[in-house]
Amino acid sequence: MHDLWDDNSNFVNSLSFVDEKNKNALLTFLYQNKVGRFFLRIAISKPITKTMGHYYDSKYSKKKINKFIEKNEIEMKKFKKKKYSSFNDFFTREKKQIEFSQDENFFCSPCDAYLSAYKVEENSKFKIKEIEYSLEELLQNYSLSKMFQGGVMYVFRLTPRDYHRYHYFDEGVFLFKKIIPGAFHTVRSVALEKKKVFIENQREYSLLKTKNFEEVLFMEVGALGVGKIKNHDKKKFKRGEEKGMFLFGGSTVIVLFKKDILKSDHKLIQFSKENLEAIVECGCIVGEKR
User: Is 212 exposed, middle or buried (0-12, 13-18, 19+ CB in 10 A)?
Assistant: First the structure.
């Protein structure tokens, strides 16, 4: 266990940190190997992803649930009891209870995840689901990328065993959203490599005007080229209210804060530089307002 805040901060929150990012040999092969990227292109083609999506929504996929629970050691006592109609119905299972701190100075985790945090500096590069982005590339919006320069980015990496719904961490109003479809882009030259296929994840982001943290960008990152993000249509929201869910597939939540909104001297940023991630649950405190 490590204390999340430094000695000079107002409180201490202890979290466990792990190094899991580089342990998936299959992902490394698929994303970083020329032959692997060929198979990845086939795997995320529309016919295959549509077929798999229909299967996971069907009653025939229910037979995978028990093995999935056993393999991932999921504690089902945390979730509401129900008879699942499909694997996706199980994958988006609801928790019995989620508690958010009512202290408006604290930023609480919007989901269960492995968490990293980074300062957003000029020319910063961020590795999201094995793909490296600049902030402008990630958002595909120059003005927004400038808005968050000097701020803090929180990256919540969900694993298959996690609760796959995510929640608003503050009261506020919805300003606008953008959906970016996943795609393979043209081959381009890259230093130290002759050619590299640049792959993008499907993602959707919302710009939110929050009560306590000013404008915040909330992004969901899904699997490559597959529509697995399901957001609720809300113009106003409250702290702890459900924002949406991921259907079966890889998933990440990113939250961006502007400069000088959050304290950024805590150990989470230090550990993230060392490739360590904090294990967090939805509702736990992971940041503090200045």
Answer: middle
